[in-house]
Amino acid sequence: MAKSLIFDLDGTLINSLYDIALSMNKVLEKHNYPVHEIERYNYFVGDGAFILVKNALPQNVSEEEITKVLKSFIEIYEQNTHNNTKPYEGIYEMLNELENMKIKKAVLSNKPHKFTLKYVENLFNNFQFLEIHGQKTNIPKKPDPSMAIEIATKLNTLCEEVVFVGDTATDIKTAKNANMKSIGVAWGFRPVEELKDAGADFIAYTPMDIIKYISK
Hints:
Strand order of the largest sheet: 5-4-1-6-7-8
Number of helices: 9
Radius of gyration: 17 Å
Structural class: alpha/beta
């Protein structure tokens, strides 16, 4: 049985797409760029705020412009962080079961670190996440395995005994790069085919499927 689980945040524990899309569209309007349908953001997110902004902007926009729009996005997103965002159905029940099983839990997200902390503190304050990490300027983001390996070390768990849970190919690749098992969640931002193609060890169609897998 797995000893520790590392969770992605957006698209895995929480459905934050609507707030991300609304905030980004406000920014695009502010800077006189075309806005996008909410569903398009399923493919814009997952690799950090800079890539989100780059994906939302027209092609061939300069890096200087991306950085300027990113600053606006962070300011607007911070004002609207929790309006519509909430955990997926069944997440709290799954986390309760993990606590009963004494499984160590952590969060590793490509979301900016201060937002990652805020979401976990506000939405999961009844649960014990021993390590919480978002994207930081001095640490490579997923799928680089550095932070995942560091989390395993802090949890005093061998990487082979850690399961990484996420909703994108980036998460599955992070697990492979860190020599961890991977669970792809079917309720997230990306299709199941992407998770299978990336080599997910298991697909969870409900949060309680995670319990079934790690109990083997």
